[in-house]
């Protein structure tokens, strides 16, 4: 309970149930929470990182070493820890890889800051020093980055393979890296690359080596009638964003029938409408029609008579990919369907894959939407391969967009650490200590790589520093042999943006936590939307007690 003396009467500001942690206790609590999050994923880093098994209350299991998956699925019950989780989520959204590195760096920045706080260095001084160091680090990374041409398939393959190293897909990473690069290059436009145009179809059965890339779209549906053909060659494709059914009226209505002839006329009228719908599809010249909604049984019959393959209840995401792949223009009704709305595919066929029937739309003129078929022995294996592929797609996309890469294996971090120590000499005041702490924090990446590989981290770091001092900017740690090697020659590359984003996000999160000196249990906080300035409800803010906060402060997980 916070109170202030007014005369002889205390002025009570917070309710008696409120919980408050102030000063160094608040800082220490937040730092410990951030370090705990980083420590929970640290052993997953690198080619010899270990996996984690997550089990929920229902017994569902996820086996992964993907940082963002681990952190987003864990039950984390601490407000400061959640801020570190956001670092991983931002990294995933922006780049697609480097989530574990970003979180580990954020945790180490907090750990280094803890020592300086104990020496009575003010938190705002630390924050200023960290910001200066991050800015200098970003500029230094730009200087050592290597330009990559969008046609340089070799480096793109190496980048895709590096992103899969240490994950479940590693056993077939050369094959998968080739598929990823081909997929991203296929969907690349002049102005942007949208990896949503790459559909990943997971099929349990076979091995990872059976994975393949289909230049076109696979729809997880079957044709609606057995009387329809299995295969259409040089097919005109129609996409209907609606139903092929009799439309019901907007209002409830009853039809009173007084004799059987009227009923027969009513049914004939419905049948005629459905026949006209099928005829309009045929008249437009369509060989295949993909429908967003349902298709009436009678409409199915007439479409089959015309030799048209029809597929119903197609997801909107599949429809947009079909449109992009075939060049078809979706229409809301068959009444609007014309020959100009049709797309083209050299082959549309229903095929069986791992016991399930799917529609394959292939041999399109210019495949701007493709499908990766991922195979694996079990569901858990294939889920982890899928996560590795998502990371790999992200880094190849980022490389093609930015055209700059860095050597991996801890090389950029050691180079930055040396550059920042030189830079610290030019920084006046106590901020110099923060810059040096930042330099030390970056070395957590090569140190962790060495620890996870079972190597001596001190020996490895000393050797790396010596090589970088000698001018080898690409010197990194080979986790398999323990040697310091040229990562460029070894083909271990990462996009520049993976490192810059990780440093920027980690710094911002660490600075935000360090500047907090008071944690107060609040009532229901009204968080305003970007475009909606919502007012705080009565009794909100500091008046209420947030009961769960106490548990969160005591232990994160």
From TrEMBL:
The keyword Oxidoreductase does not apply. InterPro entries: Chaperone_TCP-1, Chaperonin_TCP-1_CS, Cpn60/GroEL/TCP-1, GroEL-like_apical_dom_sf, GROEL-like_equatorial_sf, TCP-1-like_intermed_sf, TCP-1_chaperonin, thermosome_alpha. Residues 538-549 have a biased composition (Gly residues). Keywords: ATP-binding, Chaperone, Nucleotide-binding. GO terms for molecular function: ATP binding; ATP hydrolysis activity; ATP-dependent protein folding chaperone; unfolded protein binding. Residues 16-35, 529-549 are annotated as: Disordered. The keyword Transit peptide does not apply. It comes from the Archaea. It holds the Pfam family Cpn60_TCP1. Belongs to the TCP-1 chaperonin family. NCBIfam families: thermosome_alpha, thermosome_arch, thermosome_beta. This is Thermosome subunit. It comes from Natronococcus occultus SP4. The lineage of its organism: Archaea, Methanobacteriati, Methanobacteriota, Stenosarchaea group, Halobacteria.
């Amino acid at each position: 309970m916070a109170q202030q003396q007014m005369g002889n009467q205390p002025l009570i500001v917070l309710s008696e149930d409120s919980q408050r942690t102030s000063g160094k206790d608040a800082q220490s609590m937040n730092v410990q929470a951030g370090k705990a999050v980083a420590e929970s994923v640290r052993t997953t880093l690198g080619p010899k990182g270990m996996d984690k098994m997550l089990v929920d209350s229902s017994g569902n299991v996820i086996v992964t070493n993907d940082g963002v998956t681990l952190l987003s699925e864990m039950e984390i019950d601490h407000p400061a820890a959640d801020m570190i989780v956001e670092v991983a989520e931002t990294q995933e959204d922006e780049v697609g890889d480097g989530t574990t590195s970003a979180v580990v760096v954020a945790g180490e920045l907090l750990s280094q800051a803890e020592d300086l706080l104990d020496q009575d260095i003010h938190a705002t001084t630390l924050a200023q020093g960290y910001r200066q160091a991050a800015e200098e680090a970003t500029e230094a990374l730009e200087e050592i980055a290597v330009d990559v041409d969008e046609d340089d398939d070799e480096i793109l393959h190496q980048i895709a393979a590096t992103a899969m190293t240490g994950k479940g897909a590693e056993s077939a990473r050369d094959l998968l890296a080739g598929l990823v690069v081909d997929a991203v290059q296929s969907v690349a436009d002049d102005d942007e690359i949208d990896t949503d145009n790459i559909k990943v179809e997971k099929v349990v059965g076979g091995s990872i080596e059976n994975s393949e890339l289909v230049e076109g779209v696979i729809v997880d549906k079957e044709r609606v009638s057995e009387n329809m053909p299995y295969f259409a060659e040089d097919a005109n494709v129609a996409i209907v964003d609606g139903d092929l059914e009799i439309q019901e009226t907007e209002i409830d209505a009853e039809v009173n029938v007084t004799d059987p002839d009227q009923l027969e006329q009513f049914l004939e009228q419905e049948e005629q409408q459905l026949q006209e719908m099928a005829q309009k599809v045929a008249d437009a010249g369509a060989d295949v029609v993909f429908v967003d909604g349902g298709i009436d049984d009678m409409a199915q019959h007439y479409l089959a008579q015309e030799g048209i393959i029809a597929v119903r209840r197609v997801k909107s995401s599949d429809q947009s990919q079909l449109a992009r792949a075939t060049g078809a223009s979706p229409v809301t009704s068959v009444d609007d369907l014309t020959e100009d709305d049709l797309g083209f595919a050299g082959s549309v066929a229903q095929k069986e894959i791992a016991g399930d029937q799917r529609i394959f739309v292939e041999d399109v003129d210019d495949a701007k939407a493709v499908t990766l078929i991922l195979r694996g022995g079990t569901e858990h294996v294939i889920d982890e391969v899928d996560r590795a592929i998502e990371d790999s797609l992200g880094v190849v996309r980022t490389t093609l967009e930015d055209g700059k890469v860095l050597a991996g294996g801890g090389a950029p971090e050691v180079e930055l650490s040396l550059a920042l120590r030189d830079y610290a000499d030019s920084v006046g005041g106590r901020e110099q200590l923060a810059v040096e702490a930042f330099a030390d924090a970056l070395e957590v990446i090569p140190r962790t790589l060495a620890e996870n590989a079972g190597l001596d981290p001190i020996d490895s770091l000393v050797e790396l520093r010596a090589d970088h001092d000698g001018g080898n900017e690409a010197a990194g740690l080979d986790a398999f042999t323990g040697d310091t090697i040229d990562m460029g020659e070894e083909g271990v590359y990462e996009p520049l943006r993976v490192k810059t984003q990780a440093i920027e996000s980690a710094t911002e999160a660490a600075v935000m936590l360090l500047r907090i000196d008071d944690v107060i249990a609040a009532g229901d906080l009204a968080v305003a939307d970007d475009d909606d300035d919502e007012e705080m409800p009565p009794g909100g803010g500091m008046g209420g007690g947030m009961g769960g906060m106490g548990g969160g402060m005591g232990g994160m997980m």
